[in-house]
Design a protein that fits this description.
Elements lengths: L3 H24 L12 H11 L2 H14 L14 H24 L6 H38 L11 H50 L9 H32 L2 H29 L10 H33 L7 H25 L13 H30 L4 H25 L3 H9 L15 H20 L2 H37 L3 H10 L3 H28 L6 H13 L1 E3 L2 E3 L1 H29 L7 H27 L3 H17 L2 H16 L7 E4 L2 E8 L3 E6 L4 E5 H6 L3 E2 L7 E10 L4 H14 L10 E7 L3 E10 L5 H19 L9 E3 L6 H21 L3 H13 L11 E3 L2
Antiparallel strand pairs: 1-2, 3-4, 3-7, 4-5, 5-6, 8-10, 9-10, 11-12
Length: 898
């Protein structure tokens, strides 16, 4: 019993040791086995054979102490109710877009199906954009709250409250950001669907437009037409039978009366408009020369009176036929084509009458002659009639289900006839009279003010259209020729209306603001705007309206070519709200708002500047120069602040601006060096103020008053009212003489000459008394008289007087001149005024003078005996009358008065 008990417990003991070793190996750090050592499980078996049980137990007890205790992670917060609602909206939008994508994948879709798919995508995309915009503010707020917690510490642990708050805020940011990115992806998906729809519509349009059929010159076409004509005639007879059947069935008295009234009203309106238009048009040729507004008003009246009655009459007939059920439904398009053709012809006639005004040149808005007006009217009306007839025949072919060769032949013939009429009109526009007049005139021919023929480019485009329209049906492109005819007429009508609208805008809006009209006078009186400002507003308003009208007409012209208004709206929305070029998002709306912020900031800055200049600074004791510096610095600071606000709205941070400034530094160093030099010099002038506004300075050859100091240059007004613009760098690095740097006091110098024979002391006293008596001459320092020179005939004195203001220098100098002259004249120190030339007496030459007089007397006696000329005798008398003697014996030296 004693021997078996250990043998039974020994395996269990070794098993315990093996289990303990495996547990130690599992809980041991993984880095120990990564260094080339054997796993503990392999080394534990030998140790277990010879090791003591007590040695293995401490290792098993120490292993759990090395393993760190894992803290439970905080639970992830759930999404808020608002985010859940937004996610639900996005899920519904995704389901809608996926359904439309599946529908778009079908091969056979009509134009109506494509339009329906695209129109359905629009509201979904607008809802997604709204979601994206609504999430911008919550996302920014959540990120700001997360930023307030700061970065997560790398060492140490956060408190449980901070950790929980961080997890919640990170979850909020992540939820909003994921929702917004999901919305952006759905928006991209909607835009892709719209692009696919546009591409399929464009492909279908191109395929139908350039689909080739049998040409008009193909004999097989006409043989098939001959075969199909009898069947089409039977179909036409069947249609007439259906009409008679409906008349017999629905031809009640009320229906017939309604149809008769409709036809009567239509005929009265259509044929009576010719008598109504001249009466309400007010275009009397016997009146005086009408102004531009009257001409355009008359044109609009003629256009409306000639078009509206015809349209109403055509609609009355179509409505009566549709309401009375007297016409089969398949033939209603034929009635619509016929009545619409009459209305179209009436519109063309009214448009030509309004713009060309035949036989009324003074009421003609367009610069054409009478002959050209007549030709254009005939050409336009003829083309309108041919197109109306072609459209009616085409509608009839569709109503009776005519054969395809017959439809091709009728459409091709209509296009060719239209092209031939256009060719005849262009040929008649060749102005032979101009060539004959040019050959008959003697000098160079001068074209009249209003040309009688179409211009060269328009005529070339017309001939090109004629060639394409006439050639396309012959080679099988009948659909393209018919489409080109329709677009030519459509574009011509729109361009003519555009001309009339632009001229009306220019005359009624621009003219009303630029001229002395009642509207302009009222605006000036109520708003205080100047006439020049109103002129600028008028020019801007007419320019904007002109651009808008041109854009609308361009869209209408391009609409039949596959350009839809939805595509244009989507493109404008993308350009306005932002599009990406690489990693840069360009948004016209952001740019516009940024410019608006800058303009508002500049406006507020100018208002603050005016308040400082006119209200606050004049109430202080600061001088004008310092006031100007404060106002200038305030203006630049306000501008920089507005610029910083605009840049911050656009998302341009200081780091990006620093990069741009670093890139521009190279250019500044080379090309903008002088500008930066002047800028820094301007800052130094405003800070150090060596010169100030109002100072009298001398710079080179210019002297004047400083009027303005800006950051780049300084404006100086000279005494002849000229403005001298001096770069600020010249004022800093050059020599500038400032007459009022310390104070406003100045000095005047006055030079006085007195006859040598007078007392110089008395003369100096009189001059000094005159200076002391002047009110603008300062007492300290007192005026001073300097005896400068003892001349031959005169004694020269100079007066130095200090005045209170250097700006009064010329005035004080003038007053002193008058006073000194009066005082010296009264004392006899200045000789009395005589002849303009002064007589200078040279002393010490009496003997020479007597000898010269004797010689001259002798010569004069001999000359009297021999000379026979009377002028020699008359000259001395003239000298005597003038008070001077010109005898050679008494010569006097004359010189100009000094």
């Amino acid at each position: 019993m004693t021997l078996r008990l250990p043998t039974r417990r020994l395996p269990s003991f070794h098993g315990l040791l093996l289990a303990a070793a495996l547990a130690v190996a599992a809980l041991a750090p993984q880095g120990a086995t990564g260094q080339g050592e054997r796993p503990p499980a392999q080394g534990a078996a030998p140790a277990a054979n010879g090791a003591k049980p007590d040695a293995a137990k401490p290792e098993a007890n120490k292993a759990p102490e090395k393993a760190p205790e894992a803290k439970p992670a905080p639970p992830k917060p759930e999404l808020s109710e608002n985010i859940k609602a937004v996610r639900a909206k996005l899920d519904a939008a995704r389901a809608d877009l996926e359904g439309r994508e599946k529908e778009l994948a079908r091969p056979n879709l009509t134009a109506a199906d494509l339009t329906r798919i695209r129109d359905g995508v629009g509201p979904v995309a607008d809802g997604i954009r709204t979601v994206i915009d609504e999430l911008d503010l919550p996302l920014a707020s959540a990120r700001e709250r997360l930023t307030q917690l700061g970065p997560k510490p790398k060492e140490g642990e956060e408190s449980p409250e901070i950790a929980k708050e961080r997890v919640e805020r990170e979850a909020a940011v992540a939820g909003i950001d994921e929702t917004q990115r999901l919305a952006r992806s759905l928006l991209v998906q909607s835009e892709q669907i719209v692009d696919r729809v546009s591409n399929r519509r464009r492909d279908a349009f191109t395929k139908g437009l350039f689909e080739r059929s049998q040409g008009l010159v193909a004999p097989s076409l006409w043989s098939r037409v001959a075969e199909d004509v009898p069947r089409d005639m039977r179909a036409l007879q069947s249609a007439l039978s259906d009409i008679m059947l409906l008349f017999s069935r629905n031809g009640t008295l009320g229906n017939l009366l309604l149809l008769g009234i409709a036809f009567g009203v239509s005929f009265a309106l259509y044929f009576g408009r010719r008598n109504i238009a001249p009466r309400f048009g007010h275009r009397d040729e016997g009146e005086g020369e009408p102004d531009r507004r009257s001409v355009l008003l008359a044109a609009w009246r003629v256009l409306l009176i000639g078009t509206v009655p015809a349209v109403l009459g055509s609609y009355a007939i179509y409505y009566a036929l549709d309401a009375t059920d007297l016409l089969p439904s398949r033939l209603l398009p034929v009635a619509a084509a016929i009545t619409g053709g009459f209305a179209f012809v009436a519109f063309v006639q009214a448009l030509c009458d309004a713009l060309l005004s035949q036989n009324r040149p003074r009421w003609r808005p367009t610069p054409v002659t009478d002959e050209s007006a007549t030709r254009i009217t005939r050409l336009a009306v003829s083309i309108a009639v041919v197109i109306s007839v072609a459209k009616a025949i085409e509608a009839l072919n569709s109503g009776i289900s005519a054969a395809l060769p017959v439809s091709i032949a009728t459409r091709g013939i209509g296009a060719v006839v239209t092209g031939l009429i256009l060719a005849i009109g262009l040929h008649r526009f060749a102005d032979d009279s101009t060539q004959q007049a040019e050959e008959a005139c003697l000098g160079p021919y001068v074209a009249p003010e209003r040309a009688s023929a179409l211009g060269g480019p328009a005529r070339m485009l017309g001939w090109l259209a004629v060639i394409v329209i006439c050639a396309a049906p012959l080679v099988g492109y009948v659909a393209f020729a018919a489409f080109l005819v329709d677009q030519l007429v459509w574009a011509a009508s729109l361009l003519v209306l555009l001309y009339l609208l632009v001229q009306s805008v220019e005359a009624f809006i621009g003219g009303a603001l630029r001229e002395d009209t009642r509207i302009a006078t009222t605006l000036q009186a109520n708003t205080g705007l100047r006439k020049r400002s109103l002129n600028q507003i008028g020019v801007l308003a007419t320019g904007l309206l002109r651009v808008l009208l041109i854009a609308v007409v361009a869209l209408l012209i391009l609409a039949p070519w596959g350009l839809d208004s939805t595509d244009v709206t989507a493109s404008l929305r993308t350009a306005f709200f932002g599009f990406k070029v690489g990693d840069v998002t360009i948004s016209l709306s952001s740019i516009a708002f940024g410019i608006g912020i800058l303009m508002v900031g500049v406006f507020v800055t100018r208002g603050v500047q005016r308040w400082l200049e006119n209200t606050y600074l004049p109430a202080t004791d600061l001088d004008s120069g310092l006031r100007n510096s404060i106002s200038t610095v305030a203006g630049y600071c306000g501008f920089l602040l507005a610029l910083a606000l605009a840049f911050s709205y656009l998302g341009l941070s200081l780091e990006k601006l620093t990069i741009v400034a670093g890139a521009l530094s190279v250019g500044i160093g080379f090309g903008l060096q002088s500008i930066v030099n002047n800028f820094v010099s301007g800052l130094l002038l405003l800070w150090e103020r060596p010169i100030r506004v109002g100072d009298q300075v001398v710079i080179g050859d210019s002297e004047g008053i400083v009027k303005l100091i800006s950051l780049r240059s300084t404006e100086i007004q000279t005494f002849d009212r000229s403005a001298v613009i001096v770069p600020n760098s010249n004022l800093i690095s050059g020599i500038v003489k400032n007459r009022v740097r310390g104070d406003r006091a100045g000095r005047v110098n006055l030079t006085v000459s007195v006859v040598r024979s007078q007392d110089p002391v008395r003369a100096a006293e009189l001059i000094e008394q005159c200076a002391r008596a002047h009110a603008d001459v300062m007492k300290e320092p007192p005026p001073r008289v300097v005896f400068k020179k003892i001349g031959d005939p005169y004694l020269e004195f100079e007066l130095f007087a200090t005045i209170v203001d250097v700006g009064l220098g010329l005035k004080v100098l003038t007053d002193l001149n008058f006073a000194v002259f009066k005082a010296l004249s009264e004392e006899g120190l200045i000789p009395a005024m005589g002849t303009p030339s002064s007589i200078v007496t040279v002393q010490g030459l009496e003997g020479v003078q007597g000898a010269l007089g004797a010689i001259a007397g002798g010569l004069g006696k001999s000359g009297d005996a021999t000379s026979a000329e009377p002028s020699a005798l008359a000259e001395p008398d003239a000298d005597v009358r003038s008070g001077t003697s010109r005898a050679p014996s008494r010569r006097k030296l004359e010189r100009s008065d000094a």
